[in-house]
Structures are given as structure tokens and as C-alpha cells.
Amino acid sequence: MDPRRLAAVAAALWAGLIVGIGLIAAPAAFAVLQRSVAGAVAGRMFTHEAYVGLAFSALLLWAVRRVARSDAAAGRGSQLSLSLVLVLVALFCTVFGHFGLQPMMATARAGEGAWSFAALHGVSAALFGLKGLVLVVLAWRLTRPPA
């Protein structure tokens, strides 16, 4: 499969996962379950998404680097493409948002730490939304024909 097409499909699937969890599954859990149970269910979904996101990141980094090298060799840009930067932003949002903030949120939920749970949750939600937006932009960019 063409690396550009593979990257576009991967970015679109990952974006769809983000939208599915963030706009459908997590709100549905809070609508029908007790708050503590819904929080546990949502947390589990976000953990699964983080690990799937790491796999998507690896695939996207490989594919986008191949596309960038090919485009640079054809005189259509640099090896440091905007698509590569978008993948790195999505990866940062995953690593910092889940693996960095989640332990701090658990500490805050226990009444410890310097930050409130609400503040950390807001930052985490913003990073999750940013990641989804970045992935939609990446998928859109990769579906355009090379310039």
C-alpha cells in the first residue's frame, strides 16, 4: 500500500477512535452509570486509546517519513514536513495527556498534590481534543494529491 494512503487511513481511524470515545462512549457511560463506575469505564477506554495511539504513532511516523523523503527527493518540500510535525503533536498529546497527567489526576483525586483534579482533567480533555483536531487535519492533508 502507498505510504501516503496508509498514513491517511491510519490518521482517520485514530481520529475516529478519538471522536467515538470522546463524544459518544464516555458521555454515554456517564449518562447511564453511577459516576464512580462511569469514571472507571471512561478511564479504561482512555487507557486503551493511549496504547492504540502509541501504535498508530509508530505507524504514522514511519509512513509520513517515507512520504516526506519521497516528496523531498522530488523537490516538493523538506523531510521535516508539516505532516510529521502533526504526528509528533498527536504523539505528545498522547504521552503527556495520558502517561503524564493520569498519575497526577489519581493523586489529586486522593486529595494530594499541588493541582486540583478539575484543573488536571481540563488540561487532559484539552489535549485529547487537540489530538483529535490534529489527526483530522493530518488525514485531510494526506488525502490531497502531492503538490
Give a quick rundown of the structure:
By secondary structure, the protein is mostly helical. The protein has helices at residues 3-32, 35-73, 82-109, 117-143. 84% of the residues lie in helices and 0% in strands.
The share of residues in helices is over 70%
User: What integer value in Å does the Rg equal?
Assistant: 17 Å
Roughly what fraction of the amino acids lie in strands?
under 5%
Shape label: elongated
Major pleated sheet:
none
SSE series: HHHH
Mean pLDDT: 94
Annotation field: number of helices: 4
Into how many domains do the coordinates divide?
1
Low-confidence stretches: none
The total strand number stands at 0
Task: Return the structural class.
Answer: mainly alpha
Distance between the termini: 20 Å
Please tell me about this protein's structure.
- With 147 residues, the chain is mainly alpha-helical.
- It has one domain (3-142).
- Helices cover 84% and strands 0% of the residues.
- The chain contains four helices and no strands.
- It has helices at 3-32, 35-73, 82-109, 117-143.
- Helix 2 runs antiparallel to helix 3 (82-109) and helix 3 (82-109) runs antiparallel to helix 4.
- The radius of gyration is 17 Å and the shape is elongated.
